[in-house]
């Protein structure tokens, strides 16, 4: 567990002061964004920063803050390349992030690019939004 000591808070302040250089969206992220439009879901916030008050600066790839639903598209899960998510320290960092989010009421759904492309991510995102109180987009006859 990270305690809010002076060095930890000082580091968080330094990180917060750095200019944010947006990274280019991944194929999985762009596909998910298009699926949100085609399924007529509310527009999610992209790269939503959270936990700033706790001395952390984490982001969700997609989030609906009104429903406390977040989507993470995990890169580097297939092929020979390395991803931050698959290293020991990267995995531990992700655990800390997702546990913090869960303890603060967030439902975080994680998907690979393959799962996004197959439609699983958008189907589960819609189900999560409905579970959290959003009315279905289906037209009844």
What do these coordinates show?
It is a single chain. With 141 residues, the chain is an alpha+beta fold. It has a single domain, classed as Endonuclease, Chain A. It has five helices and four strands. Strands 1-2-3-4 form a four-stranded mixed sheet, sandwiched between helices. β3 (69-74), α3 and β4 form a beta-alpha-beta unit. The chain is globular. The N and C termini lie far apart (52 Å).
Task: Identify the notable features of this structure and list them briefly.
5 helices, Endonuclease, Chain A, 141 residues, 4 strands
What is the element layout, followed by pairings?
Blueprint: H1 6-17, H2 27-38, E1 45-50, E2 58-64, E3 69-74, H3 88-103, E4 107-112, H4 113-117, H5 120-131
Parallel strand pairs: 3-4
Antiparallel strand pairs: 1-2, 2-3
- CATH homologous superfamily title: VSR Endonuclease
Shape call: globular
Separation of the first and last Cα atoms: 52 Å
User: Number of helical segments?
Assistant: 5
Name of the top-level CATH class: Alpha Beta
CATH architectural type: 3-Layer(aba) Sandwich
H/E element order: HHEEEHEHH
**Low-pLDDT segments, ≥5 res:** none
Which structural class should the secondary elements be placed in?
A: alpha+beta
* Biggest beta sheet attributes: 4 strands, mixed
Per DSSP, what share of the residues sits in E-state strands of 2 or more residues?
15-25%
Q: Give helix % range.
A: 40-55%
Strand order of the largest sheet: 1-2-3-4
Give the total of domains: 1
> What value does the average pLDDT take?
83
Radius of gyration: 16 Å
Total beta strand runs: 4
As for the CATH topology, it is Endonuclease, Chain A
């Amino acid at each position: 567990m990270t305690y809010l000591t002076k060095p930890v808070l000082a580091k968080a302040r330094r990180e917060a002061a750095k200019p944010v250089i947006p990274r280019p969206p991944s194929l999985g992220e762009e596909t998910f964004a298009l699926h949100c439009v085609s399924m007529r879901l509310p527009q999610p916030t992209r790269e939503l920063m959270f936990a700033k008050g706790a001395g952390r600066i984490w982001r969700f790839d997609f989030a609906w803050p009104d429903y406390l639903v977040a989507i993470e598209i995990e890169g580097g899960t297939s092929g020979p390349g390395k991803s931050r998510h698959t290293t020991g320290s990267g995995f531990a960092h992700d655990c800390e992030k997702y546990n913090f989010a869960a303890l603060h009421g967030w439902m975080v759904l994680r998907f690979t690019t393959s799962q996004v492309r197959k439609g699983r991510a958008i189907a589960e995102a819609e189900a999560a939004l409905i579970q959290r109180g959003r009315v279905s987009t289906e037209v009844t006859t």
